[in-house]
Design goal:
The complex is a heteropentamer of chains A (325), B (559), C (337), D (324) and E (286). Helices cover 74% and strands 0% of the residues of chain A. With 325 residues, chain A is an all-alpha fold. Chain C has two domains: 251 residues, P-loop containing nucleotide triphosphate hydrolases (Rossmann fold), CATH 3.40.50; 57 residues, no CATH class. The longest helix of chain C is centred in the middle third of the chain and has 18 residues. Chain C starts with a strand and ends in a 5-residue tail after the last helix. Classes of the chains: A mainly alpha (325), B alpha+beta (559), C alpha/beta (337), D alpha/beta (324), E mainly alpha (286). The interface between A and B is large, with 55 and 60 residues. Chain C: It is found in: Cell inner membrane.
Chain lengths: 325, 559, 337, 324, 286
């Protein structure tokens, strides 16, 4: 309880700092946000009016206070270009990003954990000699490169998977949930999720293998063998449970970081998610939108960092249950 | 007439007013290193490649040319707000339906009234030009006006304030298994990405949706605000206008049954009978009047405000007639105003306008849950980076043949082609990729892919800053222009999807384009360029081009 | 006395890049039923390796190179894995040195005890639960603490829990590897008392691996002294400690400060044990031994020099004469250059 | 005679981990690892501090060495209060009071040669470079590592535990200290080499007239090297005096238990049951009154009410128990 | 000399690290002798005739890997791209290692408010999404190698700092650090003379991973259009290839080699760090 409160306070502090940093970042940049509106008919007065309508003509401290105030109210402002509330735009994109990230992570971790545990046992074998470099290579390859090759191969050439988007053109659904669970959506999800998973699996695999090897050398595993326990009991009940601790933490951290890291995959697969909102907002100089997307991604990251900490503490009795003497 | 002789003729025709008569003697100062601004390769690959090619050629003239790629934002900042600072820049004018009338290109771009803050950022000031630009505005006679516009192009050709590069050629394709090939309509300067095509495409099978791609997201669906090209494609379909630019590039009556020019300052529009908004209410003259009043109220619609500035009054003279009275004659009024402004429902918008007049924001921030227009398509939904869905308006007099019009946002050019091949889209309308690939696909799938090509209204050019020597010297500009090989550029930078340009009026606008100019497109003539410079007094010393005798370099290089 | 465990010429080698390390190199001794045998020696002498080798659980790189270890009539060395697994914990159990690492950190102590009772002992959950409580009471722990996590235990409690774990299935032999080394004197004494008491009460045999002669003196019936992978002396505690036959044992006794004996200088054994990678020929202690003679270049056999008292020294017959010399520092000084 | 180094009512409190309830109440619980310790040792003398782990003996040593900030009380060097000295002002004290570590395998920078390790204090204490070599040789000879050349250019991992501990001692001696504090100096060493290190230590103390403090849990060892001993329990000195007397006739019940628990390497031991029960109590919530009362076989009601003050029970002997 | 022999011995026993170092060396040679190895000027638009740009040429004896859509020699771009990759990778890694080690050392050894401030700072940085941050910074300032390297360094130092800090925390408890205090070393001397060399291998390990991160980030940023437009980098080559639909053209010669180079160089960092992992965690290496 105390840990949760403390960690929460810490997360709020970090969020505040990130929000302030974002404010500074977006205010102190060179260039003029109104430049995007240049046209033959754009005049000085219009420019001034535009700045006023976004409050950009006020002194910075005042802007900062207003900014923090609206953040607290969950108001991320209005998009320069779309003129819609930023939050609405982000919430539209959010489910797609969540679906992509979670699916990819689950695939990556399920595979990585099993393969990693297997490799821990296959120490020194030929399999290991091939599998580890292979895992490292998937992690070393640029995601977009891998994605484009997969796309060219599985979609353009063989026509198996759709080339872009999250749904068939013009498909109708009764609810967002119905959309996310439709066969159509899942079919569109396969390729991006697979690419992302391919990139992500290296970490759990290597981590699982390393911690497993470490745990297998631990005295309590030696003891378990001395006790004559079955191999299954040793591996599952003792080794895996201990080895999974850091992997579970990595999962939570990965959830946070791939949220922001999806930018590239979303662009390759024209996946209508947060990352693409961010990129197109940045490219189009839609600062309120870019700022909002950035803050939302950061908020998820901070939250997941917190969850990772709490998860670790919760899973590991050494942390969660204080020592008593 | 070959190019060289053209150049010589051009040289002979023009005087060299600002140069010493005697081009002999010791050379002047060496010309400072010049910086050519361009958008980065990633943002504008063709323009970047063109800039590289141009720079390569100009260096051969003894100039030190540095390429400076700048992101959109920063480039606009420099070119637009720091007009004294830069030397020359890659720039483009994009084709839009309303640019089917030459007024915008002629008046706004190069009239000296726009030098300080307007679009004449190159700082071109020529009283002769100004006179012609003004004259074409108020000339109501089509033939006479066309003659003036052609004259304008001659002046531009002589002065070369821009080094025109190319008019892009739009390459589009559609799936003829889905739509009857003959039902596709081409619009001058736009190709099949046009209003007429969207209502004409005739589905032949079970797929009755038009699915068209876009490389950028739709940002706003608002009759008083468009933020980018895709926005305008959507508003075009959802809201009707009094007139529309026809496939031939000329305005034709639309919501107005008849448009009559009562006198040079008065225009009457008789609206069609029985028109309804998507919510079922009738379209009235009151709606029309309201639609033309709103942009003039405060700064509620900065985008459309300039278009109503010339309207002295707009009134409903009877139940079906709306009368426009102008402040001064405007030849482009039909195309630039009547075919541009959207007709909205006063019932819906009047309270909104009232509300927004008291707010710091303007109407641009108003988001209709489900926009209501009166056009041939009704708005269904829009997801920013995903798609926009419209459905056919069965009550429209020009009811579309297709059931729905869906625009898919696909950023990835490769994926766009993949989507066309897989049938995820059936009209390829927004394509800047490699044309060979589309043509190859059409060859491989002759029963499926139909390709259309159309010269664009827009053009690509190098804007030279006439405020900064040596660009103030027309001879120098002509020489630079002469050194550029536009054919090569069209091939190597625009993948062959472009035609050389020497005018701001595209050949697509047959009525206005000065055909004579085509034969005088300078290009690829390094020798000619060198001679022009030589004659104007510029001298090569070593590898470096120097000003004519007595001219000092006083301009600081771009930083 | 019937021998419960008979170890003969046992050798355990570690494979390293530089060649085999002979951690245990021909060890022989007996463990009579119901007795506590102290296995004493300095670090690196092979005593811990020996203990673990008997359990048949060693690092990958280690293997039993030779010898036999007959336990209740079965040779642990040649016994097939499956059969040996049957013996493990049921007949033969183990108490490790650092009980903290020996308990699974993410499972409650009770669960670990239950696991052995149900899976190896075949008890029902209910029976196992009451047995677990009984075991905790037996080693002097509050049964309530079965629900604790290992890290909540103090060092002494962990060691008691380990003993409870080792006793769970009523083994005949318990091998305890330095069970009290990491503990404070008072706790050390308490744990030793528990072990002694249980041994007497349950009649099990115990091998107590330790470096501390005092622990052996306090707790053991018999002692086996190891040096550099070899057994150098073995016999009843009294005989070995009071009348050591091997110079190493003599040195060890004199190197120890004694609470109750005042004055005098301690006598250090100069030098350090040989590398087990390439051990010298002959007696391994010869290089540090003040009494070394030419013959020490040959391997001295472990022979019964006195009743039930074995030593591996060519000069064990002169032991009585050597002992007073060994008590003097000058004797040892300068043996090693 | 003024002690060379002394502790005067020395206390060290550490913040304990806070519970949520503490947090809410703004309460900050402290653990007193050392609680009013007073002791001292003169030149050429040796004092042993003995007790179980957690009794505060190591913290006391670290306080005396000024490695830990003192909460209250003072550290005296030659009668001078050095408690408040910081930074450069501390250097003379540092050069005079040196430490011998418990774990020789950990006490030397693995990347430094022995020479560099021994040069480091000389450099820091401003010994001119031309004198350094002589100092190093002297120290090496004193710890019986000769010839010095055989060791000076080697790295720690090339030496055995006994040799390392001698290097550690040489490093302490190279600065010519006045006092030396040895924290469990031989507990990590093999039995056969312990005696050697202890003998070197004892001889150095005698020859250089050092004031020595030994920290150990092993009374037998203390007896061998120290004339005097202080027994600590939960941060307090419960008994002190001449070692031989205390071992022969312990006054405090805890000392009695300690003496009874020490193992001896002899077979005939008539050792009764330990006169103590239970384990160390929670440091945060110590029992009221006498800290030892819940483990004491002789505890009486008064022990819960009143903490016994240390009192003199014989010349040079002190104990803190109501029963003495 | 001794160290060199030890390193060599270590490498022989660590095939992973050996492969990694070999890749590094190979690319280093390519970068140094890029001007000699490259067959053409990587920026120059090549012509195959008068005003005919040599575009999309297949691999040949003159163009080992063919030419791009813009008429540039792919092989020469690849070779010159090594320079920018190494520059980006190595400078970023250096900054990460320097900043991370410094922060970790100070926080770990000094503790107290120094530690608190540094750790709070690192928490904040860890709360910033990596790639989005790099993109936003590139977009808001001038996109370029300096911006990229700076933002990568800014984003990655906390990982290194945290690891170094915890290492320092445990080193601080080591006897020889205590001994340094007792023998009169100042805190700065202890940090930089005694402790720093101990954490150097760990820092180097994080550095070798940072090399990879920086290169991948450069590639991703370039792909999204936020790269340094003036550089010749593998990322920009890939971007160029994708923008020109090299995939649809099946111009494998264009988009496979830069990707493989990135993989190889990033992989080298991983291999080196995995190799030395054994050095650091001997527990894994029995």
């Amino acid at each position: 309880m105390k840990r949760v409160l403390g960690r929460l306070g810490h997360a709020i502090f970090v969020l505040w700092a990130v929000a302030s940093l974002t404010f500074v970042m977006f205010r102190l940049m060179p260039g003029d946000p109104t430049l995007n509106f240049l046209s033959e008919s754009f005049s000085e007065e219009m420019r001034a009016a535009l700045l006023t309508s976004f409050g950009l003509d006020r002194p910075l401290p005042e802007q900062y206070v207003l900014y923090l105030g609206s953040l607290l109210r969950g108001d991320l402002g209005v998009s320069f270009l779309q003129k819609k509330p930023v939050l609405d735009i982000l919430l539209d994109a959010l489910p797609n990003t969540v679906a992509l990230t979670v699916t990819a992570l689950v695939i990556a971790y399920a595979f990585g954990i099993i393969a990693g545990a297997f490799l821990a046992f296959a120490r020194g074998s030929v399999t290991e000699g091939i599998a580890i470099p292979a895992a490292l290579i998937t992690r070393a390859a640029p995601e977009f490169w891998l994605g484009m090759i997969l796309l060219a191969w599985l979609s353009f050439a063989w026509g198996i998977f759709p080339s872009s988007g999250a749904n068939e053109a013009g498909s109708e659904f009764t609810s967002e949930w119905a959309r996310l669970t439709s066969a159509d959506f899942l079919w569109h999800l396969v390729l991006p999720a697979l690419t992302l998973a391919l990139y992500l699996q290296g970490l759990p695999l290597l981590l699982m293998r390393a911690t497993m090897l470490e745990v297998l050398n631990d005295e309590f595993i030696v003891m378990a063998r001395m006790k004559g326990l079955s191999r299954w009991a040793i591996v599952m009940r003792h080794a895996a449970r201990n080895a999974l601790l850091p992997v579970a933490t990595a999962f939570a951290l990965g959830l946070g970081s791939s949220f922001g890291g999806n930018v590239v995959i979303e662009t390759v697969f024209s996946w209508p998610g947060l990352g693409r909102v961010l990129v197109s907002a940045v490219q189009g100089a839609d600062y309120p939108l870019a700022q909002g997307a950035f803050i939302l991604i950061a908020a998820v990251l901070v939250t997941m960092n917190m969850v990772a900490d709490l998860l670790y503490a919760w899973l590991d009795p050494r942390v969660s249950v204080g020592a008593r003497r | 007439m070959n190019r060289r002789s053209v150049l010589l003729a051009a040289t002979a025709l023009t005087a060299l007013p600002r140069l010493p008569a005697l081009a002999q003697g010791a050379p002047g100062d060496p010309i400072r290193p010049l910086v050519l601004l361009t958008r980065p390769q990633a943002a504008a690959p063709a323009a970047y490649q063109a800039a590289e090619l141009i720079a390569q050629e100009w260096r051969k003239l003894g100039l030190q040319v540095e390429l400076r790629p700048l992101p959109n934002q920063q480039m606009s900042q420099v070119v637009w707000y720091e007009r004294q600072r830069w030397d020359f820049t890659m720039w483009q004018m994009v084709g839009r339906p309303e640019r089917g009338d030459p007024d915008e290109m002629v008046y706004n771009l190069l009239h000296s009234a726009n030098i300080a803050t307007g679009y004449n950022f190159v700082g071109y000031s020529n009283p002769d030009y100004d006179r012609l630009a003004e004259a074409q505005r108020s000339e109501m006679d089509q033939a006479r006006r066309a003659a003036i516009v052609r004259e304008v192009q001659e002046v531009v050709n002589r002065d070369q304030p821009y080094a025109f590069l190319v008019h892009p050629v739009n390459l589009q394709a559609f799936n003829k298994q889905v739509f009857a090939e003959g039902s596709a309509v081409n619009q001058a300067g736009l190709g099949i990405r046009n209003f007429w095509n969207w209502i004409s495409l005739q589905p032949t099978g079970r797929q009755r949706d038009i699915i068209v791609n876009s490389t950028e997201p739709v940002k706003a669906t608002n009759p008083f605000y468009v933020s980018g090209a895709p926005d305008s494609w959507v508003t075009d379909l959802v809201w009707d206008r009094l007139m529309r630019v026809g496939p031939d590039g000329l305005p034709q009556p639309w919501a107005a049954e008849r448009v009559t020019q009562v006198d040079p300052l008065t225009i009457d529009c008789v609206i069609r009978q029985g028109m309804t908004h998507h919510d079922g209410t009738p379209v009235t003259t009151e709606d029309v009047v309201f639609s033309y009043e709103v942009p003039g109220m405060g700064d509620e619609s900065p985008m459309y405000k300039p278009f109503v500035q010339n309207i002295a009054s707009v009134t409903a003279t009877d139940a079906r007639t709306v009368r426009f009275v102008l402040k001064r004659p405007d030849a482009a009024f039909r195309i630039a105003v009547l075919a541009k402004l959207n007709i909205v429902s006063k019932r819906i918008w009047a309270p909104v306008v009232q509300d927004y007049l008291n707010r710091p924001q303007n109407l641009e921030s108003f988001v209709e849950e489900r926009p209501v227009g009166s056009g041939p398509y009704r708005f269904v939904r829009s997801r920013v980076n995903e798609e926009v869905v419209l459905e056919a308006n069965p009550n429209h007099w020009a009811r579309p043949k297709a059931d729905r019009w869906i625009m898919r946002i696909i950023l990835n050019t490769e994926a766009t082609l993949g989507a066309l091949r897989r049938g995820e889209i059936n009209v390829l309308a927004d394509y800047f990729g490699d044309p060979d690939l589309v043509k190859t696909m059409a060859r491989q799938l002759p029963n499926m892919i139909a390709v259309r090509e159309e010269v664009d209204i827009g053009f690509q050019f190098v804007g030279m800053n006439l405020r900064r020597p040596p660009f103030n010297d027309a001879a120098f500009r002509r020489a630079l222009s002469a050194a550029v090989n536009r054919e090569m550029m069209a091939g190597a930078a625009w993948n062959g999807q472009a035609v050389p340009a020497n005018s701001m009026v595209s050949p697509a606008l047959a009525a206005w384009h000065d055909r004579g100019i085509e034969g005088r497109v300078p290009g690829g003539n390094l020798e000619g360029a060198r001679r022009l410079l030589q004659e104007a007094g510029y001298r090569m010393v070593g590898n470096r081009l120097h000003y004519p005798s007595g001219v000092r370099e006083t301009t600081t290089p771009y930083q | 006395m019937a021998s419960l465990l008979t170890v003969r010429d046992l050798a355990v080698h570690y494979a390293t890049a530089a060649g085999p390390v002979r951690a245990v190199d021909g060890a022989s001794f007996d463990v009579p039923a119901g007795s506590i045998v102290g296995l004493v020696g300095e670090s690196g002498c092979g005593k811990s390796t020996l203990g673990r080798a008997l359990m048949g659980v060693m690092p990958r790189s280690a293997r039993i190179a030779a010898g036999s270890a007959v336990f209740e009539g079965q040779d642990l060395v040649t016994l097939p894995d499956k059969a040996r697994k049957e013996l493990l914990w049921r007949r033969l159990s183990f108490v490790p040195q650092t009980a903290m690492n020996a308990l699974d950190p993410v499972q409650r102590v009770g669960a670990q005890l239950m696991e052995v009772l149900t899976e190896r002992g075949g008890l029902s959950r209910a029976a196992a639960a009451s047995r677990a409580e009984a075991l905790f009471t037996l080693v002097g722990l509050d049964p309530k603490r079965l629900r604790d996590w290992p890290h909540q235990f103090s060092g002494g409690m962990r060691q008691r829990a380990s003993i409870a774990l080792a006793l769970a299935l009523d083994p005949a032999l318990m091998i305890a590897d330095e069970p009290v080394t990491a503990l404070d004197v008072i706790v050390q004494r308490q744990v030793l008392d528990v072990m002694k008491e249980l041994q007497a009460r349950l009649g099990l045999a115990m091998i107590l691996v330790t470096h501390d002669v005092a622990v052996v003196a306090y707790a053991c019936d018999r002692v086996v002294v190891m040096y550099a992978g070899r057994v150098v002396e073995s016999g009843p505690v009294r005989a070995v400690l009071e009348a050591p036959l091997h110079p190493y044992t003599m040195g060890l006794m004199n190197a120890f400060p004694d609470l109750e004996r005042a004055g005098g200088e301690l006598v250090p054994i100069e030098g350090s044990p040989p590398s087990l990678l390439n051990p010298p020929k002959g007696c391994r202690f010869a290089a540090r031994c003040p009494f070394a003679v030419a013959r020490c270049a040959e391997d001295p056999p472990l022979v019964e020099d006195a009743p039930d008292h074995h030593a591996a020294c060519w000069r064990s017959a002169e032991a009585a004469a050597l002992r007073p010399q060994a008590a003097r520092a000058e004797t040892w000084a300068g043996v090693v250059a | 005679m003024t002690p060379v180094i002394a502790a005067n009512d020395l206390t060290k409190a550490f913040p304990a981990s806070r519970r949520l309830s503490d947090l809410l109440r703004g309460h900050r619980p402290m653990v007193r690892a050392v609680n009013g310790v007073t002791l001292g040792v003169g030149a050429g003398r040796a004092l042993g501090i003995v007790g179980e782990s957690g009794c505060g003996k190591t913290t006391t040593a670290r306080l005396l060495l000024r490695l830990e900030e003192v909460t209250s009380g003072s550290v005296l060097f030659d009668g001078q209060d050095v408690t408040a000295l910081r930074g450069k002002a501390l250097l003379p004290f540092r050069s005079s009071v040196q430490l011998v570590f418990q774990n020789p395998f950990d006490a030397l920078n693995p990347r430094f040669t022995i020479r560099r390790t021994l040069t480091e204090p000389l450099r820091n204490f401003g010994i001119p470079p031309d004198q350094q070599d002589a100092r190093i040789r002297e120290a090496m000879a004193r710890v019986r590592l000769d010839p010095a050349e055989a060791y000076l250019d080697r790295h720690p991992h090339e030496l055995s535990g006994g040799q390392l501990q001698r290097v550690v001692l040489a490093r302490a001696l190279v600065a010519h200290p006045r006092a030396i504090i040895a924290d469990e100096p031989v507990s990590m060493l093999d039995v056969s080499v312990r005696a050697g290190v202890l003998n070197v230590l004892r001889r150095a103390r005698d020859e250089l007239q050092l004031a020595a403090i030994y920290i150990s849990h092993d009374l037998a060892l203390i007896r061998y090297v120290c004339e005097e001993v202080a027994v600590m329990y939960l941060g307090r000195v419960v008994e002190s005096g001449p070692t031989a007397e205390i071992i022969a006739a312990p006054a405090h019940p805890y000392t009695r238990a300690l003496v009874a628990a020490v193992p001896v390497p002899r077979v005939d031991q008539d050792r009764g049951a330990l006169p103590i029960q239970g384990g160390l109590p929670d440091q945060v919530n110590q029992p009221s009154g006498c800290a030892f009362r819940d483990r004491c076989p002789l505890a009486m009601p008064r022990c819960a009410e009143e903490a016994p003050a240390p009192r003199s029970i014989a010349p040079g002997r002190m104990a803190a128990c109501h029963l003495v | 000399m001794r160290a060199a022999r030890a390193t060599l011995g270590f490498l022989r026993s660590q095939p992973f690290a050996l492969v990694g170092i070999s890749i590094y060396l190979l690319f280093l040679v390519l970068a140094i002798f890029a001007d000699q190895i490259a067959t053409h000027d990587p920026r120059q638009i090549l012509f195959s005739g008068a005003y005919r740009v040599a575009r999309y040429l297949p691999p040949s004896a003159t163009h080992y890997l063919g030419t791009t859509a813009g008429g540039r020699d792919i092989f020469s771009q690849l070779v010159h791209g090594t320079r920018s990759a190494l520059t980006v990778g190595v400078t970023a890694a250096f900054c990460v290692v320097f900043l991370g080690s410094l922060m970790g050392l100070l926080a770990g050894y000094l503790g107290g408010w120094v530690d608190r401030i540094i750790m709070r700072l690192s928490d904040i940085v860890l709360g910033l999404p990596f790639l989005p941050f790099v993109l936003v910074i590139s977009a808001l300032t001038r996109p370029g190698t300096v911006t990229l390297v700076a933002s990568v360094a800014l984003m990655l130092w906390p990982n290194t700092a945290r690891v170094i800090r915890s290492q320092v925390l445990s080193l601080r408890e080591r006897g020889w650090v205590e001994a340094a205090r007792v023998t009169g070393c100042s805190p700065m001397r202890i940090i930089f003379v005694h402790i720093a060399p101990q954490v150097a291998p760990l820092a180097a390990l994080y550095g070798s991973i940072a090399v990879g991160w920086a290169i991948l980030t450069e590639a991703s940023a370039s792909f999204l259009g936020f790269g340094d437009p003036a550089a010749i980098s593998w990322g920009l080559m890939l971007q160029d290839a994708f923008a020109n639909q090299a995939l649809s053209r099946e111009a494998w010669n264009w988009f496979i080699p830069p990707g493989l180079c990135i993989v190889a160089l990033v992989l080298a960092g991983f291999l080196v760090s995995r190799g030395s992992e054994k050095l650091l965690f001997p527990k894994l290496g029995d």
